[in-house]
Specification:
This protein is an alpha/beta fold. It has helices spanning about 30-40, 50-60, 75-90, 110-140, 160-180, 205-215, 220-235; strands at about 20-25, 45-50, 65-70, 95, 145-150, 185-190, 245. Helix 1 packs across helix 7, helix 3 packs parallel to helix 4 (about 110-140) and helix 4 packs parallel to helix 5 (about 160-180). InterPro entries: NAD(P)-bd_dom_sf, Sc_DH/Rdtase_CS, SDR_fam.
Length: about 250
């Protein structure tokens, strides 16, 4: 479902206390909603995704948002994305690792190519983002990682074994990062429940498609997750919001 968004003016995006925020997977869903919300709040956004037409539309909706084509499965591409933002803006304050895919299927369907794609995007993509941004955060003496995981990091259902596995991995990697980092680097995991998005459109297995139609009977808009991300990054330096689960009130 499409939610109209009021265009963001350049003036609204330039405030003295705004942060330089990078968002991956920004062409739709949670990534797009996060970019738009944070831009309205006065942050400088640098966003990336594979679909350049969607990025162009985002740039028209929110003038001043810096859009760049990005494939998170390509380590050099992610490094260039982060390094380029630092070169252009002098620093990077927040990296929202949001890019993800969800082609659910039963294990006995043997959709191995789809399993590999989930591992590449959901796990390797996250690691590539950490590897690219962490040296900058350490050099700056601060920064904030936000990982968009999933309720699938906390529960497994039939057809979600591989997807949940990747999101458990995302949770574990992010928690390990939190423990290893200096306290000046904050780390947050956000686990959405059922959100209006295009993720389910990638499901090719008929049984999983049918189950998902029932599962997605109650959804919340992606801006609900964007609001949670905004809350986490807006806290004072001594406050580290480590984990948030946001789902529809009717989701059980």
């Amino acid at each position: 479902m499409f939610h109209p968004v009021v265009p963001v003016s350049v003036d609204a995006m330039t405030t003295s206390n705004g942060k330089v925020v990078l968002v991956t997977g920004a062409s739709s869903g949670i990534g797009r909603a996060t970019a738009l919300r944070l831009a309205r709040e006065g942050h400088q956004l640098v966003v990336g995704a594979r679909r350049e037409d969607r990025l162009a539309e985002l740039a028209e909706t929110a003038p001043g948002v810096d859009v760049r084509r990005l494939d998170v499965t390509d380590r050099e591409d992610v490094a260039a994305f982060v390094d380029g933002a630092v070169a252009d803006h002098g620093r990077v304050d927040v990296l929202v690792n949001n890019a993800g895919v969800m082609p659910l299927s039963r294990l006995d369907s043997l959709h191995v190519d789809e399993w590999d794609r989930m591992i590449d995007v959901n796990v390797r993509g996250l690691l590539h983002g950490i590897a690219a941004a962490l040296p900058h955060f350490q050099r700056q003496g601060g920064g904030h990682f936000v990982t968009v995981a999933s309720i699938g990091a906390h529960q497994v259902v039939p057809t979600s074994a591989v997807y949940s596995g990747t999101k458990y991995a995302a949770w574990a990697i992010t928690e390990g990062l939190r423990q290893e980092c200096d306290p000046s680097i904050r780390v947050t995991t956000v686990s959405p429940g059922v959100v209006e998005s295009e993720l389910a459109d990638t499901i090719t297995e008929a049984g999983a498609q049918e189950a998902m139609r029932t599962y997605r009977a109650n959804t919340i808009p992606p801006d609900s997750i964007a609001a949670a991300i905004s809350y986490a990054i807006s806290q004072p330096p001594e406050v580290d919001v480590n984990e948030l689960i946001i789902r529809p009130a009717r989701q059980r």
